[in-house]
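for the record, two folds in this file. i put them one after another cuz i was lazy. first one right below, seq on top, structure tokens after. the second one comes after a little note so u can tell where it starts
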Amino acid sequence: MAIIDYASARNLALMFFEQAAKLGDKPFLWAKRDGTYQPMTWREADRQVRALSRALRAQGIRPGDRVVIVAENRPEWVIADIAILAAGGVTVPAYITNTVADHIYILENCAAKGLICSTDKLLRNALPAAIHSSHCEFVIALEGDGPAQEPAIRFQSWDEALKTGEGMPDDVEDVAGQRGRDDLACLIYTSGTGGAPKGVMLSHRAIFCNLYSAYDLLLDLGLDDEVFLSFLPLSHSYEHTCGLFFPISIGAQVYYAEGADTLAANLQEAKPTIMTAVPRLYEVLHGRILAGVERAGGRKRDLFMKALELGRRRIEQPGSLSLGEKALNLLLDVLVRRKVGQRMGGRLKAFISGGAPLNYEVGIFFLALGVRLCQGYGQTEAAPVVSCNRPLNIKIETVGPALKGVEVRLAPDGEILVRGELLMDGYWDDPEATEKALIDGWLHTGDIGEIDADGYIRITDRKRDIIVISGGDNISPQRVEGFVTLQPEIGQAMVYGDKRPYLVGLIVPAPEFVESYAKDKGVAPDLAALAGDKDFRAAIGAVLERVNGGLSNLEKVRRFVVATEPFTTDNQMMTPTLKIRRHNIRKEYQAVLDALYEGKAG
């Protein structure tokens, strides 16, 4: 393992070159080729970074110029990012789910000079945006045939760009060395859960602060030759810092997951030691494990449920296990928990959850099964991690204490405020929004919380998302939605009720439930058709009654409507990190939701 000196590191590009010089022919980045994972060594990555960086300068990139990346998680994404930084530029990650309009907005807003894109499929949206932009001068495409006709913009393939760079003098480190810790490293646009995205300006310093904090946190695990499985989009600040630059800083290997459907297989293939992801992933794993246990039935199911029961009691009620139960619990480590660990690859030291609130029931489920799951908290504006549970002292109902080098305090109204080198420099070309977010050196997060005697932070509400019903009571929609989506019959949910007398819900049934119901009734598993089926709605209603039994009167979902399609990134109802876009969902279903209060629906 090669650890960099976080305090003296000048910039992220030089950090990479330092690590590549130490690690040479050791494997670095793993991606699927011809059905199997193939490695790219540190030396090969270094060669491509240098070539591409020189090619970017040949295209006219100068210090401070912005270059957009639109690509799936893959080794070339990393090469492009570091090459941009080494040329003195600023990386602007963009989601592959962006529309042409989304790309135009980002390219124009940050006046990007270039675009690096991966495939013909992604170029369909990205290339028209680049041509439309009044600032973008060139496009580099990783693969594919490119446009059918000569585009009205300089166009170069990845291989052509590398060839161009290879023919130039190797002065890359000299050029990279001209950038310092306080220079801008990346411009990451928020995913826009509440409106138009804002460009968050993150310096090398801010990211280094996060890297050092993460290193301090994970030292408790005994860092060695670590292996990461990268699943979240690299265009998200969480994966960009924790799944890209942190592994580089400790000389780790990174495998790129193929997608959600293949994640279980990828865990077996990569055998990761550390993995960062959003709560939705853990919810999916939770559901799949339970479904598998139910299918197995019999003794396997009984042993599993006993392991879950005793594991949970050991955590929630320390000292409550009898001598016999302790002995049985040890036996269940071998019969159940070890097998669960093998499903995660067999070497997992910790899952890290962030990006959204983790449902307590999901968190305690994994801990009870011996899978270390540490919930953290952060924002893009904080590069992005603010706090995280310490691996050897987990309070899963919290997001842990502030990381080393980070200050956290509560405002009089309970809002969480953050200070430290990790903070953004502001929002790109938006001084008004910057002044509202950064006040006297403190980031106003918009989250409401509590801090216990040990310094562990509990998030209780989100200022922007709080529902204030007509009686004046405040309700956290995420808490209610968490209980609803924990049910196996429910895939997604959004509750609504601001300035209304009670909560109503928009429900997306789980695909398995839709298929099962349709099979029993002998009808097609068409969600749009079933949404109006009286018996189908009654079945969903029974599930909500079950949920309501565990909620306070204010939190109960009194009426509901079944959505005609799932919330996805394609229909713009979900962000690429799997958080629901409330404003878009409300826009689509506003009339139906309002009708629930008028007795015309539900």
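(here's the note) second protein begins now
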Amino acid sequence: FVVDPAGPGNTFRVRNGATDVYNFGPTNYYQRPDDRYVLGAFSHYQLADWAEAYVDVMYMDDRSTYQIAPGGIFAGTFSINCANPLLSAQQRGLMTATAASGGGTCASNPAGTFTGIVSRRNVEGGGRQGTTEHQQYRYVVGMRGDISENWNYDAYLQYGRVSFSQVQTGFFRTTAIQNALNVVTSPTTGQPVCASVLNGSDTACVPYNIFQLGGVTREALDYLETPSSQLGNLYERIANVSIGGNLTDYGLKSPWAEDGVGVSFGAEYRRETLDFAADFVAASGALNGAGGASPPVNGSYDVYDLFGEARIPLIQDMPFARSLTFETAYRFSDYSSIGTTHTYKLAGDWEPVEDVRVRASYQRAVRAPHVLELFSPQNVVLDGTQDPCAGLAATDPLVARCAQAFGLTTAQVLAIEENPANQYNGLTGGNPNLDPETSDTYSVGIVYQPSFLPGLNVSVDWFDIKVKDYISGIGADLIINNCVETLDPFYCGLVNRDAQGSIFLSPQGYVVDTTLNTGSLRTSGVDFNAGYRTDLDRFGLNDMGGISLSFVGTWLDKLEIQSLPDSDPFDCTGLYGTICSVSGGLSSPNPEWRHKARLTWNTPFTYGDWLTSLGLSVQWRHFNKVTLDAYDEHPQLFNPGLQYETDRVLGARDYFDLTATWTMKDTVNFRLGVNNVFDKDPPVNGSSNCPTGPCNGNTWPQVYDAFGRYIFLGLTADF
């Protein structure tokens, strides 16, 4: 039921799930205010011919304020006493008392208790706000110098720290909600009062009158709204020493090359430490609508590295081999958390003639799990964006599959409520038994620098990258969709429904999506780069300055995600949606082609010390269209429940930007520009296909310009 705005103000009518939904978008800050301060200091001192001491200090402070939609009572199970004096007679007649309290309606059983799902936005209190601050410190102390003509060294100690703090307001405390809904008539004043005030368990309680239009008071909000804070620190300590040089003096060089073998080798120690703690309210999960509890995290690991690399000129200045060079590198790492790892590289560079260079490489890389992935406590939080079994009609063929998948009756499936905000619970958290990710990267490219057109540089590079033992969650949406599609006991066993059959109404309903070594992520494609710089005198435009052009583009051939080692991979190239923009560490649409091109005119205009240089540039940004993943034929993506025609395609976008830069007295640099000159709107899609986080305001701000035309002015001064 909902309070009927057409009635006398304190009556219920039956809730219409299609229309009685809060529009949470307009209250959110679309762009957050941000203040950032950066300080850097560098010094060096020559102690001797072979020793230079140096110190680097960096500091950054960043503060930002966000606002999201009002909090309140997020759909959960609460109890309301039938004798609540804030209820009208009509409302009592519609509310059912629990069997344990005598059954019947609240009108016929005033001593009974209604227990059910209660949900209401705090529209009177406004949006929830939070202020986030990051402070970063970095100190480096080292010494470097030349050991001999062909050898040098560098040794340093580094300490880094990132501090995080956040204060948020506007959230209700869950226990306070329950107390404020349990209202009785005071025997002394005859006025509504919280039962907890009379029994002494919470004397600060103020009744929360959600049963009457205009019934919410500021005093009630002051009682319910509970600020919270959280603090965290990430520490990094590094000790590194490296030696580099040339082996020519030792006779180690190719007989067909003039230059000797260049090498570098060294050792490093690194320690990573994280500590994070929220106040009791947030850590215990008492903030209603905060997405779950914020338990403390504390952990660290050490790693010892030995590394070396070599560059070996094989052939120089010979026919069809102006230069042929081989490169190799190796690193041995010993982690206290995961054991030992090995990484290495093999690469070649061939310049048959002066204008052309061909390059190829193979690299094995390893990523060890970080502290959060290892040590975060497992916790129920907001994770998924869909429940294919929620809000179904009786004629929907999914009803039978959902009943079979989760052992429910048809009536129980039809009673599963859909979350209007498309937010569902997941059990997430770290895993101390993780193995490292390993990746294999293959690349082949060609660079063309024609001698007949100085200033032109063109390169084309093919890449193929595969990450195995990928560290991630499988993805709540992928898990539940695979369960319903395949009825696989593994996936279905990860879905825990609460007593209402829901995975969002209570912490007892969730999808297990903890961190583990999943399947793999593979991507391949071609990168295109081109640049050209010249004076306009070459074209007969004397004293007109010079121009520079740059172009960077990527053709995405493949973007495959394999959720588990034995599962069938699916390709997200050219797709977006709740799986292809979220699973496998992805966080945005994946257009098949994107590019950025810029033309800059470095004008000859000057005016004494007040204008020593002036540059004008235009930039073109392009993103190909993307299609909703729910329309893809792959069984892990195909989802008729999300196939809204308005969401089928996000059209291609072209943005044009203008920028002017000018320098005054050679030390002060100004920037003035307009991004998205033609005020092109971003493509939008419905909330069902707009997962919270990467999608905001029904679009994808990591790819598309969400604000339309954007004007900026900047200043940099050197002292």
